[in-house]
Design brief:
With 801 residues, the chain is of the alpha/beta class. It folds into 2 domains: 2-192 and 578-800, MFS general substrate transporter like domains (Growth Hormone, Chain: A), CATH 1.20.1250; 317-543, 3-Layer(aba) Sandwich (Rossmann fold). 58% of the residues lie in helices and 10% in strands.
């Protein structure tokens, strides 16, 4: 068996299976975005690791059979991975799960759990392939574990490149046949016959394609599904790539007519529009007919028109997250001479400009409008221009589904960068949706307050104005105090269009709550409390500023509030909770329960099945050792995925760059440990965890400032910077797991599959807990907690057992 295990074919097979599994994991983030919700990276990783946790239990149960017929076990699981990847996507889309209903309908936990179980199956099969090889590898464990990690890292890079050229459905088919190829390679290396496996696998794969052709459809509650289900809805344009799938739906029978922030006293209405969707979610509208002056008259009656009514009308305007271009059209209509439109989604920007050019619209006229395809923060870091007005619109989120969505564009650091790019009398305008009691609007006010104070402003309240309309707020921030003329223009705008004053320097309490009347002027009272740094009457987080280390602007519910609310509150009270946080808590509960089962069940089975499982102390040291590694690795990994979204400008880039860097360099660390002599493992473990801890501290204190200085680099160079920075940490993190597993294989080989499952189970819990924990202690806190988990490894003392 030893000579077979040294086969290069088996190494390639392991790498191919690992690459396919990681690619499938990244594809799941895209599939979740298309079918359900786009902010589910942690959930997708939890699904993957749920399969890895279950794998340990399965390997314990089947250990005797695996040792007798390793080729059969390997080929069965490799083929199962390839076939189930397609079938499970089809099955999951048939499960009726509505995340919006989770707050008031706890029965939604059942379809959520079913979705988890179904989508974990491909990862379970892939983990079985890797785990059984590690179980048989003995002293060669670091070598095969290194192949696993390096293959997974290369898979992350490959899928990122492929997403720009190949549809998700086609990539699923490619992964099917990658699993079949891995099965054939591994079978030959383990003593089986590869040709029959290849033929049978292709036959099974083709039959699976015929029975369940890959199709990714939006769920019934998605905006795109509703638009196409409406009488007359027609998909007229679509573009897809790494930034998502952009769809345009026109409807001549029931046309879209939306104008967020439109006054209830408006004299002009929006024209017939075509609806735009990104990954099935509403992303705005486009004019459906020829562009002319009358068709844009409604733009004068939007809440966002206020800055153009000031004494010094803005001539140079930057429109951040420009989307479908209505704010660009508003700036041009209001007399702006030069407009810079910044949009991070390349597919969206391309379709929008094609559409406007066809209508002879000036929105993409290069003589007056400069479109920049990059994130708002990256643009601000790369430009030296100054602007009279910078505008930013936040997406709607009526149910709090975006509670754990990361957004670096409206943090204290971001607002500080925007203020630095304004002219002396310039204005920063931030608009977004309102909820009662006030949440997002007050968080933005607190963020602006702190940014002004960071810029040296002693009295921020004199630099700020805030208004609200029907379910919309507008926050104006200026580096200079608002003039008497600007205050008068604000009051006149409020009176003429029926917008309520929330805050204006020198306003009287009776000036608030005049038009969209509430029982009490809760918005004005909350604004006064925020500016005075007093607690607000609303949710605890509503008066807290948003910072880069915890960039969750839509968050208003703490995770423990959601947990208590789920257990004790009535349905009406639960409806006030952020749905995104509720989903995170439920995911953590499912992951925790599953991890408990996957850790304890094998322990009972090991006692009954016999085998070399070591003494009682070694078993519990194994639990602690591999659980700490699994949790620590995932905490660092996800924290850096979240943190580097700011530097790389897009979640997919960040996810792929971090996963690839960590996995490839951790694989090199594992291969390095394979070459080291058996003696001195304890000393090497201490050195490795010390390097990890020191690197984590340096990254928390030094790296953010370095990344700020390099933010204007080209995206390819930024990805290279990420790889170089993460390499030392990842290399050291690749040493503890294979070192501990090799120690077990020599002292208590019966514990190896159990340890594999413990590592996966702890990773499941860590992946689910990271967004909730990160919202409380920030990314820096996550990294320091991970460093602490690695520092505990020498104290656990597995290598001394």
């Amino acid at each position: 068996m030893r000579s077979r295990m040294q086969s290069r074919a088996l190494l390639v097979s392991i790498g191919l299976i690992a690459a396919s599994a990681l690619a499938y994991e990244i594809l799941l983030t895209r599939i979740f975005a298309l079918v359900h919700w786009q902010h589910l990276v942690a959930v997708a990783i939890s699904l993957a690791l749920l399969g890895y946790g279950a794998s340990g239990t399965a390997l314990v149960l089947a250990e005797n059979m695996i040792r007798r017929r390793p080729a059969l076990a390997y080929v069965s699981n490799a083929l199962l991975f390839g076939v189930s990847g397609l079938a499970c996507i089809a099955m999951a889309q048939r499960i009726s799960f509505d995340p919006y209903g989770l707050s008031w309908d706890l029965a939604q936990i059942v379809p959520l759990s079913a979705t988890f179980l179904v989508l974990a199956l491909p990862f379970f099969a892939a983990a079985n392939c890797i785990g059984l090889v590690l179980m048989l590898a003995g002293r060669e464990i670091p070598r095969f574990y290194g192949a696993d990690l390096i293959g997974a890292g290369l898979g992350a890079v490959a899928v990122l490149i492929a997403l720009d050229w190949i549809a998700v459905e086609a990539l699923l088919v490619i992964l099917l046949f990658a699993g079949i190829a891995g099965a054939a390679l591994g079978t030959g290396a383990l003593g089986g016959r590869p040709l029959p496996v290849l033929v049978a696998g292709c036959a099974i794969g083709l039959a699976g394609l015929a029975l369940t052709p890959p199709e990714v459809r939006p769920a019934v509650y998605k905006d795109l599904h509703r638009a196409l289900a409406t009488l007359g809805g027609e998909l007229v344009a679509e573009s897809q790539g790494v930034s998502g799938v952009v769809s345009i739906v026109d409807n001549r029978q029931v046309p879209a007519r939306t104008a967020p922030g439109l006054s209830l006293q408006a004299m002009a209405l929006p024209p017939r529009q075509a609806a735009v969707f990104v990954d099935g979610d509403d992303a705005g509208t486009l004019p459906a007919s020829a562009y002319d002056t009358p068709s844009t008259a409604f733009l004068d009656d939007l809440l966002s028109a206020l800055p153009y009514r000031y004494e010094k009308a803005p001539e140079r305007v930057a429109v951040l997250d420009a989307g479908t271009g209505w704010r660009v059209a508003q700036a041009l209509r209001s007399g702006a001479q030069q407009v810079t439109a910044v949009e991070p989604n390349r597919q969206l920007a391309g379709l929008v400009c094609q559409w406007h050019d066809r209508l002879n619209s000036p929105v993409c006229n290069p003589q007056r409008v400069d479109w920049q395809v990059q994130s708002a923060r990256a643009f601000m870091a790369s430009t030296s221009a100054s602007f009279d007005l910078i505008t930013l619109a936040l997406p709607g989120d009526a149910a709090g589904l975006d509670g754990l969505r990361i957004d670096h564009s409206v943090t204290v650091e971001a607002v500080s960068a925007y203020l630095a790019r304004l002219s002396d009398s310039g204005i920063l305008a931030i608009e977004g949706p309102t909820r009662t009691p006030p949440r997002l609007s007050m968080r933005m006010l607190a963020t602006a307050r702190d940014a002004l104070q960071r810029a040296g402003v002693a009295e921020p309240s004199s630099h700020i104005a805030m208004l609200r309309g029907w379910q919309r707020f507008l926050l104006l921030v200026s580096p200079a105090p608002l003039t008497d003329a600007d205050r008068a223009a604000t009051r006149a705008f409020s009176r003429s269009l029926g917008f309520d004053l929330v805050w204006l320097p020198g306003m009287r309490p009776e000036e608030a709550n005049r038009y969209q009347q509430l029982r009490r002027p809760v918005f004005h009272e909350a604004a006064q409390a925020v500016l005075d740094r007093r607690p607000t009457a609303g949710p605890a987080l509503s008066g807290q500023p948003v910072i880069d280390d915890a960039p969750y602007p839509h968050l208003s519910t703490r995770w423990h509030e959601a947990a208590i609310g789920l257990l004790t509150a009535a349905a009406e009270q639960r409806a006030q909770l952020d749905v995104g946080v509720v989903l995170g808590v439920v995911t953590l509960a499912i992951a925790g329960l599953a991890a408990l089962v996957f850790i304890l069940m094998p322990l009972l089975l090991l006692r009954r099945l016999g085998g070399e499982i070591g003494h009682h102390g070694m078993r519990w040291r194994s639990v602690a050792h591999f659980a700490l590694i699994g949790a620590g690795f995932l905490l660092v990994e996800i924290a850096w995925i979240d943190r580097l979204q700011l530097f790389l400008g897009h979640p997919v880039y960040a996810t792929t760059a971090v996963l690839a860097s960590f996995l490839v360099f951790a694989g090199f660390g594992s291969l390095w440990s394979q070459r080291q002599p058996a003696h001195g493992t304890g000393r090497r473990m201490v050195v490795a965890v010390t390097v990890i801890a020191v690197a984590c501290v340096l990254y928390v204190t030094w790296v953010p400032r370095l990344l700020d200085r390099l933010a204007d680099l080209d995206i390819a160079l930024r990805i290279g910077v990420v790889a170089v920075l993460l390499a030392p940490l990842a290399f050291a993190m690749g040493i503890p797991f294979p070192t501990g597993l090799r120690h077990l294989s020599l002292r208590a080989p019966g514990l190896v599959p159990w340890a594999w499952g413990i590592n996966g189970s702890a990773s499941v819990v860590a992946a689910a807990a990271t967004p909730l924990l990160g919202s409380e202690i920030g990314f820096s806190g996550l990294i320091l907690v991970a460093a602490g988990s690695y520092l505990l490894l020498p104290l656990v003392g597995l290598l001394r057992a």
